[in-house]
Amino acid sequence: MSIASASQRIPEKVFRDPVHDYVYVQHQLILDLINTKEMQRLRRIKQLGASIFTFHGAEHSRFSHSLGVYEITRRIVDKFYRSYPSQEPGDGLWDDKERIVVLCAALLHDIGHGPFSHTFEKIFATDHEALTQAIITSPETEVNQVLRQVSPEFPEMIDSVINKTYPNPQVVQLISSQIDADRMDYLVRDSYFTGTNYGNFDLTRILRVMHPYKDGIVFDYAGMHAVEDYVTSRYQMYMQIYFHPVSRGMEMILNRLMQRAADLYQDDSIYFDPQSPFLIPFFEKNWTLNDYLNLDDGVLQCYFAQWLVQNPDAILSDLADRFLNRKPFKSVTFDKEKDQANLAKLLTLIEELGYDTHYYTALNSSFDLPYDFYRPNAEKPRTQIELLEKDGTMVELSQASSLVQAFTGKPRGDQRIYFPNELYYGKNHDHISLFEPLLDNIHDMTRTGKLRALD
Amino acid sequence: MSIASASQRIPEKVFRDPVHDYVYVQHQLILDLINTKEMQRLRRIKQLGASIFTFHGAEHSRFSHSLGVYEITRRIVDKFYRSYPSQEPGDGLWDDKERIVVLCAALLHDIGHGPFSHTFEKIFATDHEALTQAIITSPETEVNQVLRQVSPEFPEMIDSVINKTYPNPQVVQLISSQIDADRMDYLVRDSYFTGTNYGNFDLTRILRVMHPYKDGIVFDYAGMHAVEDYVTSRYQMYMQIYFHPVSRGMEMILNRLMQRAADLYQDDSIYFDPQSPFLIPFFEKNWTLNDYLNLDDGVLQCYFAQWLVQNPDAILSDLADRFLNRKPFKSVTFDKEKDQANLAKLLTLIEELGYDTHYYTALNSSFDLPYDFYRPNAEKPRTQIELLEKDGTMVELSQASSLVQAFTGKPRGDQRIYFPNELYYGKNHDHISLFEPLLDNIHDMTRTGKLRALD
Amino acid sequence: MSIASASQRIPEKVFRDPVHDYVYVQHQLILDLINTKEMQRLRRIKQLGASIFTFHGAEHSRFSHSLGVYEITRRIVDKFYRSYPSQEPGDGLWDDKERIVVLCAALLHDIGHGPFSHTFEKIFATDHEALTQAIITSPETEVNQVLRQVSPEFPEMIDSVINKTYPNPQVVQLISSQIDADRMDYLVRDSYFTGTNYGNFDLTRILRVMHPYKDGIVFDYAGMHAVEDYVTSRYQMYMQIYFHPVSRGMEMILNRLMQRAADLYQDDSIYFDPQSPFLIPFFEKNWTLNDYLNLDDGVLQCYFAQWLVQNPDAILSDLADRFLNRKPFKSVTFDKEKDQANLAKLLTLIEELGYDTHYYTALNSSFDLPYDFYRPNAEKPRTQIELLEKDGTMVELSQASSLVQAFTGKPRGDQRIYFPNELYYGKNHDHISLFEPLLDNIHDMTRTGKLRALD
Amino acid sequence: MSIASASQRIPEKVFRDPVHDYVYVQHQLILDLINTKEMQRLRRIKQLGASIFTFHGAEHSRFSHSLGVYEITRRIVDKFYRSYPSQEPGDGLWDDKERIVVLCAALLHDIGHGPFSHTFEKIFATDHEALTQAIITSPETEVNQVLRQVSPEFPEMIDSVINKTYPNPQVVQLISSQIDADRMDYLVRDSYFTGTNYGNFDLTRILRVMHPYKDGIVFDYAGMHAVEDYVTSRYQMYMQIYFHPVSRGMEMILNRLMQRAADLYQDDSIYFDPQSPFLIPFFEKNWTLNDYLNLDDGVLQCYFAQWLVQNPDAILSDLADRFLNRKPFKSVTFDKEKDQANLAKLLTLIEELGYDTHYYTALNSSFDLPYDFYRPNAEKPRTQIELLEKDGTMVELSQASSLVQAFTGKPRGDQRIYFPNELYYGKNHDHISLFEPLLDNIHDMTRTGKLRALD
Description:
By secondary structure, chain A is an alpha+beta fold.
């Protein structure tokens, strides 16, 4: 085959999508990629992880999201091709030979994600970006085999788009930039499934005001307010959905549960072998790509459930129970600079109540979460959002919009300390009344939602 | 406690729901039930099972649906209480003492469902209705413990609502009738998540035209068209979503996969023990309620994945691969009376190609699926939909609506024979070209979508 | 110019549309047509006339609807062009030279509508279809001048599409058939603006399963349920929205008001001249196309308001008051065959109360309203809905769908007698208590909603 | 009657509303108010005036909006009554005796609006706020008659709520504050009908986090992001919808048209009498409340149409043509300080082309438009948005939200000079080629969208 023949259209296939109505597939290559086992595996990995414990509707998978990113990219490319077709190399317009390249990259951009990625990566030192690369470029995967049919270099081309080293900046920015197809899909999709409206910016208008340009993608100045709306949607989704304190309370439990399992395995592998076979390579820190591809949400939850029922370790069982049966850690915010003594005091109180604070408390800073806001002055100036005025001059977005300027360069979020929920409401639980003075103290320090000194 | 104290309102808690905007919880008892591990387990069981393989958005869980049924019931009861409050016993109006009873029943009506219920039940002889009863009435469950706090008989009261033996027919019909809160929620919810509009009847209008009545629930004659619309929505959802041939093609694979596992276990349990611990009791046909509660979608899929990688049985691995990696059986319709010879011929051809037809073909009649259409003249006339005219007379719906009459008493659906997808497109697959004449024959018999005689 | 040059694309212009998101204009000719005064005049004519008095949101104009019909047609044609482009004349596929023709026809199909067409036509013997033709073909209109720029025959071509005499049946059926762009737009649009969901069929799926065909437009058999859904939507919209008894109660007042004005003018034109200048030609039965184009909803309502304040005729003022201030006639259904005596009796009672029954009562049969249901066996068999099976055979829809068969050939609707609202609730109005026995009788005859004999 | 008896509930009546699904009417008094001719008149006055020329869907009336404000208020009051019922006078909680008062005020708050208010007021010195007061308190209106049935002082009570002098600040702020029921309805309603999503903030969440408080209404601190979202929606709607340059281009024509009529009448009333009877009192500057109530959109448009056809004044006819047939003035922005010379130059050029710049140009500053952004530090500090923290302290919104701070105290909008559209594209119009050099100059000064000096 070749890029030219891979670009041939087939009779359109569709996927009914609640967010985009239909996802249109027009190339055999795309259909073949969707049917690989690596893509199908994304059906078994939830897009938002622990957020379902706060927003019960948000049970959608990374598979749905991947189709959505593909579809948004397809629509943009259709528009570019209709309105700004390149006439000659280097004219800064859209070269439709890139179509099949960018569509593959869009579809595959998240292929390396695993179950509860953000937490899993911290404990087991996996890296979903490196794994995305591996899945695309390793000859053992079905994805690679499908891509290689185009040409031997095609997998590396797709990988380079995702890695941002591909020479055409338009292609790169469609997949990775401050306002790319990936973010556009997840904002509207996560809005739809959570049932909130915050991420619901004016997608059709954004698509209308996008242009290909010599150095990438720009936006009509006339569309500035639609871009502002998008930036605000991102902000709202992070503040209200992605950083929700209760979801993070579940994520902290997951983190502690995995950590406990990893620690226990070091002591004695009998706890986990042979009943958690797919995790052993990770406990052993000696895993292959195939091992990684065996994992999904269901596998982890199955093992948690088995641990809950069968594992003799009380802490492991208890944490598995908290996770499976939704008993989130409670939290209060704190100030990293001023609250060191208060943090120490709180941990002491919790320890005195008999909890192993290593597994039963956690500090979480939402700034550390691997999502990011719009930040135009970062190290890579190419991904600034640029507005194109009628007379051809460019304006960087925050220079034009004082609303966006309010967001610019200022990280948002908070820092929280997490601890078992029962400590907060402890006084109502008769069975722990013995410790009442300690609970009183914890209550005093946390009752306003912000950590404060004990009176 | 008592029903009266359980009926006390607490400060409202809400769950953000994409279908009903908010689910409002106003009683501690409801909140405690939601927090039981049996309810939380429903988060890990998809509402539509294999339908996600056709409608990728429909990844919502039975937990979401259960909250939705609760919320619709709550809204109906609020309306009944506001508009038709009982003044004295036996006046046929709404007695608000029933509120907490019907809300508990609404929330718990599906608590006995397990993973891929319809298929699992066939292979392992479980019964989700009996299990619902068991979960409510067995002292070992958290659900039962929460309910028992109201009174020792309260669990049985709730069970009797779900079993339709509760004395107040209004309460029973809100949960189980031709137009109950259960169906109302799943039609709109499944519509929302599939991204189709077929189930999207006029819920608010239906709620407005419902009345409590001596013998149950009736509808204003003026609302007849809204009820017609609901009946049509049900029909459309069954025809277009629930009976989709491709989803059934995945369900058939699941059925064959579980059957193969059950058969293999009889031969030699070493295949499954100890790596599929939660399934052993079912293979042994000796399971407890706790065993049942250990199961969920993730557990089964985890075991399937382990079988795919580790199990030496080729058929089991292959079927696990087809299920996990979405390789649905292909199908054609047939006529049970006329096509017996054709069926036999087709099976012979498939067998000659080396397939064990016991595991690689399946007949599926959608009439057998445990959903049902509106059928007013069934054995239980109480669940007819009755319209109340201005002068107080009642008319049974199909007498008033010729549209509904078109549906009445006529089962819809089809019968299909399922077989491996590769046989249908076989001629394009070089590696099986040896068998070409056989494949030609299969192709001839199936290419119109209806089984037909070989020329 | 020529059809070829009129078919040249211009940089896309868009209209933001709440139903279709955007309406895309890609030809200068279409833009010029939209900007004619005849099209702009449709902004001042409501799509649903008196229905706004029942559904206050349904205030949208025929202008919006015309853009919508254009846009649906454009999307169908795009799909036809992409999927079924004609290779040679007579191959039954889509000939894209027809694009500009069908788009013009779609945009202009309702151009001849006037204010409250259905009522106005009855009193003043205008005919919106003839007027559509006149506006397109008369050299004095801007529409004609724009069309003529393409070629001298172009206006007649467009007219022949709307009149169904154009040679290409695909073009004709896109604009006028049982499932055309006109109906598709008004069902979804009227649903959107009334705030009901009944007309909200699966438009995108319908567009997907449409095909051009030698004799017109057909639908994939696989899309049968989507077509059923459309037919049901039509039925529901007629039953619940278009035939709503209260809207018709306002329409009856409008009818009587215009009739009274026409009758009065015959007696003495001084009542109306010079203050209602735009109506004089119609009173005189001697009007030109320009006279017709002067009329719109605002003009009529302005004159009604002036009559209310200034006209010495008590009946005219009173009817104007009832119309402007929303005092609909009340109605009951009756049986044309059995209720003749009851009708006579009721009219006598109303007359005895001092009402001129010529202006204060009205019979309305909704079967007479100029909308129609799906009727596949009508005199024009070309407009049957045909389903195309995989093997190439055609099935007429009602043969395939028992649901549609329930609608087939059976007119729906009812007959009602309308009378002043105050007679129904009369007993509560003290100032007419003198007539109480008569009111008692009227109340008895009408209180069940169906006309019945006086006891 | 009395407030107590007016507060009695009646069997619920509903209005189907596309924005709020249903509007629920539960008091006879509200129903009677809706049925007054002054309320019904609002059906004939569009909510957004000239915006329909840009957003063709936005044809909704002030009647729809008034019902919407009523409904939002009703929902807030229901929530207040359920969650924060006053126990004793002065406790700062919700006193449900205020319910009927605030509902009447909500329904009637816009009753004094006339056709194209903002423009009409400028030319004819009417004042919709004073007229609202007059309609409520003048004994001749039906509204007043209905209100007076409650008590002689009741009309003044309602008026004082709208005038912000009513003693209970909660009642006042529900109707008039930075985040009141009026604005909440128009943002979501105008979004719905324009088909944009900008005004679509999280209404249900806002309602959830509102509290009555001693000095008015406050919001839970936890709901800060929902309030931010609302403020951003307001900003977006003003920037993108209400201040749209093309809508203002139509408004400028309307302004010039009315001014021309007023000026002409001073010269010679024969132009308008007797064919524009309802406008004469305004030309005469001697009008009554009844005269005002005779006006609506249709009346003005009818007169414009008559002027277009019959009036001998060329400027009046031409401006009427531009308005009725949508020929908006074109505009460019300018800087009030720096562009004085440029403005003068441009006006000179236009005059040299033969236009009377008094009627054919206009300066428009959107800051002058009678909508306003959130401005917490204005002269009335009570209407600041206050957030209530868990420990009972209050924070003013912009102190808590840097996003809102970006908006605070900074007027947004622009200044534009408007001129005939044909001058902008003049060079393409052959018939004015004589003036080409002048047109060239105009083109040069305006082609970037910002006024600039002639080279």
